Amino acid sequence: MKPDLAAFQGLLEKLVGELHRVSLGTLDSFFVRIAKRFPYELGLAEFQLLEEDAMQAEQAQVLSRIFREVPERQREAFLGAFRLATHGKEHNRLCDLLDEFLANHHQRYLSAPEREQWGNLDLIWPDGCPWAEVEDFTSAAVQVVDLLETVDVDKKPHATWIKGWQTAAEWFASYTPGDGRKVPPAVERTLGLLEELAAGQAMDFFSRIEHRISGGLGRAMTKLIGGYLRAEIEARATRTLGLWSLLWAYESIYGAEVRRRGRLGFADVTRLLADGGLTTDGRARIESRLDARYRQWLLDEFQDTSRDQWEVLEGLLDEAMLDPDGERSLFVVGDTKQGIYGWRGGEPRLFDDLLARPGWSGRMFEWGMETSWRSAQEVLDLVNRVCDPAFMRGRFPEAAVARWNYAEHRSASRGAPLAGYAVVIDTAEDEGDDEEEIGGVDGALRDLLAEVRPIERGLSCAVLVRSNAKARKLVDFLRQEFPDMPVEMDAEVELSQDNPLGVALLDLFRWLAHPSDSLAMGHVMASPLGSVIEGFGDGRTARWNACRARIVESGMSGLLQEIVPALRERGAMTRFLEQRCSGILRAALDYDESGSRDLDEWVRRLESLKQREYSADGALQVMTVHKAKGLEFDMVVLPDLAGGAFDDPSKAGILEFKDSSGRIEGVLLSPGRKLLEADASLKARFEAWSAEQCYERFCNLYVGLTRAKHATYVLLPKAPANPSSERRFDLWIRSVMGESSGELIWNGRSRVTLHEAGDAAWHEKVEGRPQAPEATVASPLLGPIVPRLVRTSPSSSKKASGKIAHSPTGMAFGSEVHALFETVGWIDEDTVALPETEAGTLVSGLLEQAELRELFSRKGRSVNLFREQAVETILDGKWLSGVMDRLHLLRDADGKVTGLELIDFKTDAVENPEELIERYAGQMQAYRSALSLMHPDAEVRCLLVSTRLRRVVECP
Question: Pick from 104, 117, 228, 306: most CB atoms within 10 A?
Fold first, then answer.
């Protein structure tokens, strides 16, 4: 069917014409607008929205106070939990790891704030733990060893089997629950038999010999291993509760010192709207006013909406859906297969909730999105093959596969099909023995880019990885391999940590905060920054004092604005350093606005200062899959598919047990997999958690595989010899693809393919984006230089001031006299009401003088009166700025200005008119010149009203 272009144009024009009525933005920004619009209903006076670096600085302050004030027992509980949760992680800065750990757990605490949700074993064993408590593990282990000879075997027990249990008994002799020591193989093996042992009989198949365990030995092993499992789980439950105690203390201090001072983050605003500070009446008033304002609701990326966000919107969307008049509407777009933000609260199950809401199902119309307008069919065929639920079933938890709502994808019909290509490469054959030759995935990536040359051809290309750390390593590698190809990373960068200038500036401020920090000072003086600091004075003390004085006078930004130009003069600034310094300077200006000069606080903020960098068109883009969501590229490379199992509890640190709606029921510091699988109740909880992890990894791979328009390249690492789990990206794809299907040549090197479809030379058939030549842009022609004018005022022309007459309170009395004269209009037309003060009595008496009465009377003249008249003009190359006390514009019968009377009130204690004229001649001449510019043909009289001489003095 031929489209009606005229009708489409009409719809487009109508849409554009109505765009000004659309409130377009993120949910976070929408919630902030609500909070600012309804502060009193939320219990707020006003609030400041914290940026990421400011929030991290606040968190560091709270954490510091906790370690000073929280009881030692709670601190130890936290540190124990911290060590357990971060076991195996490497980091050169403990504080960074601590900040990351605390930030993750703080958000978890806010989602599950109740004490009963942390380490509560009643959630796991509602009827009590089925395993008896063991008070003496040494005796229990010895009892098992004594009964080993009773094991039922065909010939005799294997000697190594016996030796293994003897080693286990020695291990139990010094065992302390939760000590983290490596568990003996005999104990790990028997954990898997615990349920069978408890049932009365188990078989341990060891070294091809069946060891049948029952009777007294079975009961002894059940007691020992069951007691061990109970002790380990209880130890983790205790530490989990200790972690809650510390987080409770952290939240109490954070709430009191940060939130209650009106310093909020986006998440704080969302929680405040969801349930904090809203009364039922207050919520109803807000929803009523919002419902009256917004009639149509359009929500995008709905699968990333959190429960808290939904609770804010729920009532409003209910009104829209259940509107009996049909004047409201709701349009929701999302894809549960792209729910990759579960780690920060995104809940894809909300889609299911929408259809299940009372009254909604009959009013909602559902459209599928299996037809892709982005990708070629070859790209989608790879997606269909890898993401097929039929293949996933049996390899992944059934609960995860049941949630995987997948239908076969197809490319939209076009006049001509898109050129497409998809390939899966096994890089195991490219490991190589030559240490100088890069092999494996990195070598394949290098050869692929050298073969296709996407940037040179004007094609957009993204390399998608799983972490920012991996992205940084790949960027460094690719920049080294392809120095002429622009390679950029879309990620947050640490402005003071990833460049030598930032590190030197950080040490400069550390030294200024703590002058005894000789290491920081030594680094500064050894860097190019040192030659700048040397110019601040002779000797260490003088330089320190000079820098501190500049900070006191003009803040952190003032010192930086003096340092950076000096570095430029010395040739120490590159374009990269200029960019980093610009971000640091902006942060300094923001910090200075607070009025603080606390160097320790500034150093903390500088240490955590980050800035998001966005990759530009015309560059190879390296980014995480999360950053790539919603984007499209001509070709996509997936080189980061190795790693551990999706559901490895040792990597998780902490387990969240959720109900069917995705809400957290309980939290437990993670035991090992063997412990979790040894008990039926624990195993059920673990399998539910495992399904959550696997589902999110499904989404992660799906997003990565669907970003390409023309070509997807999957680079698989060498398969591990004995993997502990098949639930890994690389093994998942390998199991789908099967054995090698052929070979191809990249950059002169042969590559083994597991899957290949489409045209490998697709890039020669696709027209890339033309790269605009780097034309020399002519510099804009500027006008002639206009020098900045010196600003002056007529009063600066007067000679040294005298004393103010009649001034019991000095200048205040003179100001009061001027203010009273300002109230006087024409005394022959209006009654003048003056106060009975000393100044009022003085002005009243002066107005009785014949000469002054004449001056303040209109007498039928055509005259305009101006009081406190400001004047701004350019005079003799200077900017003249002043205020005239009183001005009369005299006009003839035709309305032309014929004369001007400038009147100035003076309270100086002078003895004669000549003294007053001498003092103010310059000021009056300046005013006369300014008025003559405006009225060159009119006579200008300058009159001084002297309160001391009680007369009018004309200044020639």
Answer: 228
Helices of type H across 430-467: 440-452
Own/partner contacts of 551-556, CB < 8 Å, gap of 24 or more, are 551/512, 551/597, 551/599, 552/597, 554/592, 555/588, 555/589, 555/591, 555/592, 555/597, 556/509, 556/588, 556/591, 556/592, 556/602
Stretch (H or E) spanning 551: helix 540-569
How many residues in total does the chain contain?
A: 956
SS3 920: helix
As a whole number of angstroms, the distance between CA 506 and CA 609 comes to 11
Lowest mean per-residue pLDDT among 74-83, 125-134, 755-764 = 74-83
pLDDT at 780: 63
* Pair of tokens at residue 721: 């010899």
Please state, in angstroms and rounded to a whole number, the distance separating the CA atoms of residues 635 and 455: 11
Query: How many degrees, rounded to 5, is the angle at CA 359 between CA 354 and CA 361?
Result: 50
Q: Residue 734 is encoded by which pair of tokens?
A: 């390998």
CB–CB of 260/134 below 8 Å?
no
Residue 678 CA to residue 675 CA, distance in Å, equals 5
For the chain, what is the radius of gyration of the CA atoms? 40
Q: Are 248 and 284 in contact (CB under 8 A)?
A: no
The pairing of strands 897-906 and 878-891 is antiparallel
| CA gap 839, 845 in Å, rounded | 10
Whether the pLDDT of residue 355 is over 60: the answer is: yes
3-state secondary structure (DSSP) of residue 865:
strand
| Sequence-distant (≥ 6) Cβ neighbours of residue 748 within 8 angstroms | 447
421 φ, ψ to 5°?
Answer: -160, 140
Q: By CB neighbour count within 10 A (0-12 exposed, 13-18 middle, 19+ buried), where does 574 fall?
A: exposed
| Domain residue ranges of the chain, discontinuous segments joined by + | 52-263, 493-613, 791-955
The predicted structure's pLDDT at residue 662:
80
Q: Tell me how far apart the alpha carbons of residues 951 and 956 are, in angstroms, rounded to a whole number.
A: 16
* Assigned fold of 791-955: Lambda Exonuclease; Chain A (3.90.320)
* Lowest-confidence pick of 162-176, 493-507, 785-799: 785-799
Range of weakest confidence among 245-259, 371-385, 740-754: 245-259
Report the alpha-carbon distance of residue 875 to residue 927 in Å, rounded. 10
Which residue from 274, 271, 300 is spatially nearest to 286, judged by alpha carbons? 274
Please report where in the chains the tokens 């997807």 appear, as a residue.
Answer: 712
Within 13 Å, how many C-alpha atoms sit on residue 924's CB side? 24
pLDDT at residue 88 in the model: 45
User: How many helical (H) and strand (E) elements, i.e. helices and strands, does the chain have?
Assistant: 34, 26
Q: Which of 488, 495, 461, 494 is nearest to 615 (CA)?
A: 488
Q: Provide the β-strand partners of residue 863.
A: 890
Residue 500 CA: distances (Å) to CA of 483, 491, 497, 567, 808: 21, 20, 8, 13, 64
- The CA-based angle 436-442-443, given to 5 degrees, is 55
Interatomic CA distance for residues 331 and 351, integer angstroms: 12
Q: Kindly report which listed range (356-365, 527-536, 541-550, 767-776) carries the lowest average pLDDT score.
A: 767-776
The H-assigned helical ranges of 491-539 are 500-513, 518-526, 529-534
Q: What angle do CA 597, 600, 601 make, to 5 degrees?
A: 70
- At residue 610, the pLDDT reads 82
Exposed / middle / buried, residue 651 (Cβ in 10 Å: 0-12, 13-18, 19+): middle
Does residue 520 contact residue 491 with C-beta atoms inside 8 Å? no
Supply the pLDDT for residue 943.
Answer: 94
Q: Specify the pTM.
A: 0.73
**Tokens found for residue 776:** 């020399």
Contact 816, 837 (CB under 8 A): yes
Measured distance CA(195)–CA(677) in Å, rounded: 10
Look at the alpha carbons of 784, 785, 787, 788 in this order and tell me if their dihedral is positive or negative: positive
Residue 33: name the closest of 295, 270, 260 by CA.
270
